[in-house]
Amino acid sequence: MTNPIEEGTAERRGDARIRHYQLRLARPVEEVWTALATPAGLREWLAVAEPFEPRLGGAVVLRLPGAAARGRITAWDVERVVEYTVAGRDRIRFHLEPDRPAGTTVRFTHESADDRDPGWRERFERLLASVEGGIL
């Protein structure tokens, strides 16, 4: 079995650091979408998302321990692409693709001015556990 969390490239574009991951989940796209693009799903593995306006341009605040990242939903294509751009120029993007026979591949991009890794691998392990464990 292949590793379900594959770290891709890390690159610089101007002042931004771009990180890429690819995730393979053994669940259908609609279940993975719920984990990535709903307040209930995000709460299970990333942050409390409140407010959360599920549409292009909608407000979103990701409430992490000790901090609140305010921003907008800057891409919204139901069950395909969701992107959050928050204060500090951070941008996180999830692109979902059906994977045979009934799984999903998620191509993830994080763009930030900060060089340090915010712990994506650990967060993705929580995402896998919640989606594949049927928590949502």
Compact description:
The chain is of the alpha+beta class. Helices cover 21% and strands 49% of the residues. The longest helix is centred in the C-terminal third of the chain and has 13 residues, at 120-132.
CA radius of gyration is 14 Å
CATH architecture: 2-Layer Sandwich
The helical percent reads: 10-25%
The H/E string reads EEHHEEEEEEH
Strand fraction equals: over 45%
Main sheet: strand order: 1-2-8-7-6-5-4-3
Number of strands: 8
User: How many helical stretches?
Assistant: 3
Task: Give the total of domains.
Answer: 1
Instruction: Supply the CATH superfamily name.
Output: START domain
Biggest sheet statistics: 8 strands, antiparallel
Q: What ranges have pLDDT less than 50 throughout 5 or more consecutive residues? A: none
CATH fold naming? Alpha-D-Glucose-1,6-Bisphosphate, Chain A, domain 4
Mean pLDDT across all residues, rounded?
91
* CATH class group: Alpha Beta
Distance between the termini: 24 Å
Structural category:
alpha+beta
What does this protein structure show overall?
The structure is a single chain. The protein has 136 residues and is α+β, with helices and mostly antiparallel strands. The chain has one domain (5-132): START domain (Alpha-D-Glucose-1,6-Bisphosphate, Chain A, domain 4), CATH 3.30.530. The chain contains 3 helices and 8 strands, in the order E-E-H-H-E-E-E-E-E-E-H. The chain is globular and about 40 Å long. It starts with a strand and ends with a helix.
